[in-house]
């Protein structure tokens, strides 16, 4: 900020700025609180989904023996060839003033296959692997969501600190300096006026 002019115009300017800062600060503080609350909620949801994901992975242990049969299939007939993710369906939502992705669905390509070509466990394997893929896509979306919210929280916190620790104290100090200067000028003017009056009275007596 440039040097402050010790004038009535600058005094008004500083007071107007202080009003703007003090009016805007509560909005920033509220946004900061909202972001902190939403981040805690999203982080808790992410933690829960991660637990579900790893529980699904652990649940595959019982499939190890039967899934070994998969290695006997020709490459084009392996079970994983039946699970081909197509796209992650997300919508954008405004959360605490931030546009973030919200997971809706993970779609898969339609792949026709003859059940007779696969062992009995293949259908269940396809279902489980799709569930794991959906859970993984949801985790990635939530991580992106938390990252975006944290980035906005950092920016908002910086603005709050700027207003609280720099802009508002600076404006108050500038107002104090200008008022002291203008007060001194007014006092000097009164003193000079009295001295001039006494001189005039002395000259006429």
Describe the structure in your own words.
The protein is mostly helical and about 200 residues long. The chain is built from 3 helices and 2 strands, in the order ααββα. The protein has a two-stranded antiparallel sheet. Helix 1 packs antiparallel against helix 3. The chain is rod-shaped.
Shape field: rod-shaped
Q: Please identify the top-level CATH class.
A: Mainly Alpha
By DSSP (H or I, 4+ residues per run), the number of helices equals: 3
Distance between the termini: 54 Å
By helix and strand content, what is the structural category?
A: mainly alpha
Order of secondary-structure elements: HHEEH
The radius of gyration computed from the alpha-carbon positions, rounded to a whole number of angstroms, is 35 Å
List keywords for this structure.
single chain; 205 residues; mainly alpha; Helix Hairpins; two-stranded antiparallel ribbon; 3 helices; rod-shaped
Give a topology summary.
Elements: H1 8-59, H2 64-67, E1 85-95, E2 98-108, H3 122-204
Antiparallel strand pairs: 1-2
Summary?
The protein is mainly α and 205 residues long.
């Amino acid at each position: 900020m440039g040097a402050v002019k010790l004038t009535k115009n600058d005094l008004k300017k500083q007071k107007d700025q202080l009003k703007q800062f003090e009016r805007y600060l509560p909005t920033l503080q509220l946004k900061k609180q909202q972001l902190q609350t939403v981040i805690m909620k999203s982080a808790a949801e992410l933690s829960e989904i991660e637990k579900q994901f790893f529980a699904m992975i652990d649940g595959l242990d019982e499939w190890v023996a039967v899934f070994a049969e998969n290695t006997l299939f020709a490459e084009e007939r392996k079970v994983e060839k039946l699970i081909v993710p197509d796209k992650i369906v997300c919508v954008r939502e405004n959360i605490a003033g931030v546009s973030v992705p919200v997971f809706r669905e993970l779609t898969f390509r339609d792949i026709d296959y003859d059940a007779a070509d696969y062992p009995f466990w293949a259908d269940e394997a396809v279902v489980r692997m799709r569930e794991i893929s959906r859970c993984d896509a949801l985790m990635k979306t939530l991580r992106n969501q938390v990252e975006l919210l944290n980035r906005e929280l950092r920016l908002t916190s910086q603005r709050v600190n700027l207003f609280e620790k720099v802009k508002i104290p600076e404006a108050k100090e500038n107002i104090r300096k200008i008022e002291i200067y203008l007060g001194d000028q007014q006092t000097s003017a009164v003193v000079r006026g009295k001295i001039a009056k006494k001189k005039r009275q002395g000259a006429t007596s």
